[in-house]
Amino acid sequence: MTDLDALAFARGPGSFTGVRICIGIAQGLGFGADLPMIGISTLKAMAQGAYRIAQATNVASAIDARMNEVYWGRFERLESGDWQEVDQEQVIPPSVLVENIVADEHTWTTAGTGWDAYSEPLSTLAITTQASEVLYPEAQDIAYLAQFELAKGNTVPAEEASPVYLRDTVAWKKLPGRE
């Protein structure tokens, strides 16, 4: 650990429990080694995975967020190897996403579990897509993306590492009478 400059972690979005476990472990390691931390988007990490596997430079990431929603983000690869957000990360019902996405000249490589979970509505998006085998973010892609954030100075102390859920009312929806 003393050879590391920083500790990268998947900051979400994703399952509440998975994101919390990831950050809890990363914070423990960060505290123990006194390392700064770098949170990386799981959606962007999947875009990097699609590039690593298939050289995709335009990637639409969708993770099944349950409750008839997807975590969504589109990314375009820059010449530097970093990624630019085309659509801001969001949690959205596929039917609303279909209404809001405007056609463009790109072919978007798909990544994530949302494409299978909501194949019917997402197949009607106004964009051209091609499938990839990327379903989940991988550590090697998170580490790759962390290099860019470290170079920009985008680190936080371990105590400030925080998740990105995009949805903050999950627990309330599960309680009776709190719909």
From TrEMBL:
The Gcp-like domain covers which part of the protein? Answer: 2-172
Give one Pfam hit by family name: TsaD
User: Which named protein is this?
Assistant: tRNA threonylcarbamoyladenosine biosynthesis protein TsaB
What are the transmembrane regions? none
Family of this protein:
Belongs to the KAE1 / TsaD family. TsaB subfamily.
InterPro entries given for it? Answer: ATPase_NBD, Gcp-like_dom, T6A_TsaB
Output the GO biological process annotations, alphabetical, semicolon-separated: tRNA threonylcarbamoyladenosine modification
| Source organism of the structure | Vibrio maritimus
Q: Would you say which domain of life the source belongs to? A: Bacteria
